[in-house]
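Most newcomers find our protein records easier to grasp once they have seen one. Read left to right, the backbone structure tokens trace the chain's path through space. Once this layout is familiar, the rest of the handout is easier to follow. The record below serves as our worked example for the rest of this section:


***
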Amino acid sequence: MGSVVEVEPVDDPGQPKRTNAGHANVAVVTLTKRIIPCIDVDIDEDGEAAVYTGVNFEDLDYTGDPVEMAKKYNAAGADEFVFLDITASAEGRETMLDTVERVADEVFIPLTVGGGIRTREDVKETLRAGADKVSINSGAIANPELIEAGAAAFGSQCIVISVDARRRFDEAGEHYVEVDGESCWFECTVKGGREGTDLDVIEWAAEAEERGAGELFVNSIDADGTKEGYDIPLTRAVCETVSTPVIASSGCGGPEDMYEVFTEAGADAGLAASIFHYDEFGIGEVKSYLDERGVPVRV
């Protein structure tokens, strides 16, 4: 794919809409479900970019080289690829754009890059480095106008709002669902899940869509790395609130979990990391499983 030479504004991004959000003006269409591998990238002891995998955003283990893993997933038939710089926001530094450029040179599928994006200029430079989309979490919560500015300058299809959600069983929320027999709401967190915000995920998802986000990337801190399945109540609640595409993330343990998040929660894409990193399942294997059960995928 290579680096982007120039980034031009998009007047009509034409972002496809979801079909199960309860919006009367949404056309009924069948959209192919996307399978998306993700790498969490940090700086190792030698100052080099490296992929790490953990549980609940902690206990990170070295997993591999980001460029080599990008090549692997591009060849394996992934629909898209996500690169997250997992400490850029917490450390207040910029995204490692040199590594993004090298990854972009190896993948010929849509590339989403997140971590440390706080300004319109950050969005521009990340797209110029070869990203097709940018994923923004902490920067958008701190400055919601960034969503509008990014969408206006580069098109809504480039702006992915990432939500690092955790369950709270108290009375501080706005929207509640039943989880394991208890009433629960979901809180947005920032800085890689290290800080709470008291911001209700459902309220924020609706606002992000209204401001021009083209996609929502929903991570569950509670399910992250557990391989016990996606957080279905969380994902379903977001999907029922918005009409923009929703990427479900965190907790995938195999094809069955992908099937569940598509059919039970209404997600538009399923993201997974460790099951692919450790070769427990292949992307083709997951797609075949879904295709055999009537889930539309690109095979």
About this structure: The chain has a mean pLDDT of 88.
